[in-house]
Please model this.
Amino acid sequence: MIEVDRLTKYYGPVAAIRDVSFSVEKGQIVGFLGPNGAGKTTTMRILSCYMPASSGTARVAGYDVFEQSLEVRRRIGYLPENVPLYGDLTVAAYLDFVADAKGLGRAERRRRIGEVMERCRIEDVEGRLIGRLSKGYRQRVGLAQALIADPEVLILDEPTIGLDPKQIIEIRALIKSLAGEHTVILSTHILPEVSMVCEGVVIIHRGRIVASGSLDRLMEELSPVARVQVQVEGPPELVSASLRALRGVTGVESRGVTDGVGTFVVEAERARDIRRDLVQLVTEQRWGLLELRPVGFSLEDLFIRVVTGEEHEETGEEGSDVAQAAGPRSERRPEGRRPEAPRADGQRRDQMDNQPRESEEEPRA
Model:
């Protein structure tokens, strides 16, 4: 449904994104995750036909976002980070305006406005001016306008930013309910948002994709170690030292001692199951084993590993397999780069590269 291949965007000599490639299957909700300034908004703007790429291709619902932008626009709903609402219109009047702009007939407009207001739970404010709504309600109106034409693809850029905890929970539940009916790409820098809402994740850092895939597969493939948690009744320092000495153990983290019982998280080489050795150690030392269970990696663990690996790769240090596989990174436009062929209207993509940006993603020198 969404196919991105080697997408690059320059602002002057600086690359905001470089060689970005990923795909999203029909009906999936995929998180586009990265820190502020990583290139998320630039990518979302290219996918929504708001701005052209400098090179590379992107297809949405089978149409090229540059060569067939009108067809793409007919098939997407876009919720930008800063929703362009008209504060002097009522909710119902604004949605009617958007539906009319999308080409819906009068009867179809009435039907769709009723459906999206019910789904986004804004029926009770349909007659109120948008400028007098709370941030949470304005965000709901923004999502309603993205849904008004029943698009195949939804592009959501930081949909919960600035909301209070209750509003965040409500918006996340609403987005999750869209799975299957719509293909959703959700841009965010909030880790829990991805783990709670999305089936897959694409991680971008400093303009480059450093990991992508289903959350379960990434946890499996990108975690070089296995972890188990044990609770042992015995001398804490001796227990910790003995655990570290076991074959295949790469690290031991102490998580405190309560009433003589220490809790430890033991990391070991993934290919080696150390549970038998742990039991044997505790038995031989005549300690008490109160707990032994596997501990999974969180999305935060994964994010830190791939981002740290990318930074190590850039400084010449040994980093993660993901960062090493990504290859060398260049931030600046290659000298002597051949300009692209002119479009039918005589304008090249690289002639559009210096248009002003309205995002937090400032070009890096």
About this structure: The two ends are 35 Å apart (CA to CA). Residues 2-220+302-351 form a domain with the Rossmann fold fold (CATH 3.40.50.300). Confidence is low (pLDDT under 50) at residues 317-330, 336-365. DSSP finds twelve helices and 14 strands in the chain.
